Amino acid sequence: MADSKALTTREADFSAWYNEVIMRAELADYSPVRGCMVIRPNGYAIWEQMQQALDRMFKDTGHQNAYFPLFIPQSFLSKEAEHVEGFAPELAVVTHGGGKELEEPLVVRPTSETIIYAMFSKWIQSYRDLPLLINQWANVVRWELRTRLFLRTTEFLWQEGHTAHATEAEAQDETLQILNLYRRFMEDWMAMPVVTGPKTDSEKFAGAIRTYSCEALMQDNRALQAGTSHALGQNFAKAFDVTFQTAEGGLDHVWSTSWGVSTRLVGGLIMTHGDDVGMVCPPRLAQWQVVIIPIWRKEEERDQTFAAAISLMGELRAAGIRVTADYRDMKPGAKYYEWEARGTPFRIELGPRDIAASSVMLARRLGGKESLPMAGLGDRLKTEMDTMQQGLLDQARARREAASLRNPASKEEFIAFIEKNGGFVYAGFCGDPAVEQEIKEQTKATIRCLPDPEFRSKTAPTTCIWTGRPAVVEALWARAY
RNA sequence: CGGGGCGUAGCGCAGUCCGGUAGCGCACUACCUUGGGGUGGUAGGGGUCGCGGGUUCAAAUCCCGCCGUCCCGACCA
User: Which CA-bearing residue is nearest the C1' of B34?
Assistant: First the structure.
């Protein structure tokens, strides 16, 4: 511990680096309850920005928010066979209430399909009630064996959409519309490029007929499942008797979908953009896009500087920039380190020299410091933010491509690449269980998804993070759409 | 549940082999100093050394038991 202020580098120990970034940026903390996370104000602010952006996108596509109970009767889970089988091992169960043992235990929701479809069956009578497009912002609990801050915690915050449709085609459109919405959010707001596509049967959601996911590649070259969208077919409709009268006068079960993203996205943001100084937050999701650091030597200078900072802050806020100022009595350098660790995109240093020259010193989180005239600063900052937002996306995409292998010539090349680099391998070995098993055992690689066409190699159709002969991929892919 | 590591101040750790006054860094409190990249100084607060038992004049240290926690495997938004 020669220098307790030095951050572990990503290169040296990614996991330790990740935890240190979270602690330094004061994003989250461990709680007294094992596996549960306390989200601190800085971390929650990022989640709030995400919520606002996503919520707007949901509303724009006709979805409405609602809220359903935290407790679900245990018997509800059992109504869908695959669903209960998938979630049983990770349920938290309430057996006592009001000092008495309950007649029927209540599970704390691991996801809300069951309670929501129980309600849908009361709400839906006619094809005129469809589609029913509902979203819920909520917390859920899954008793995972091993946890990591933001990425896999016992309790987490998320958004879960649940929709019911009259036809399979319409439900399928919804599933893909949301997948695309997620992708746009992750790329445009988080500057986190993703590969989209259907999951294999073994990886799909418990109870779904098809699962689509957004897969991102982190800086340790490991994949992160950032969001999922499920086509549930009529499975839950049949289990919960969600029927409607068709336009033709018949009776049918609805076709439903469900989809969600969680606070895991905050973890993804850290692992995508963070550097050896700490967090890097894309401007569009930053609580504070700009922080003003007043600098002074003497009392009279302080008053003058504070006044200038307040005035500048007012101007920038009027221009629609999220800006704050740090008036604390600390050395400027100490403040710089703190705001950099938090990931604040831009810092404005404002001292007597700048005020005299009607200029400011602008420092970018990604590096580079220059003196700019105070006039027109708002417009300049907006340009800077656009540049940074785009730069982060480009950088992340370039990193992903550098860590991707397309069309390995042999199983051996595939295994060697994964073992050496990790990353995404677009290849085609799935369909041969023996080879799949061998790769899994030797490399711990798994099939993330069967990439949508645009992500596949131009020379040959492939799948993401391992797969096989194009023909096999084509067959799986055809079945998924 | 299998294999391994660790429990000492809020955090990170030394001390344990070889028993003898409870330590260090960061953080915190007060004052002074400093202020365009973590300023320096002085003083200070904070511990049943994970829990229980045993050996001993004497246990953070040795012995036995228990508990907690972290990492690796099975699970995973």
Answer: A331
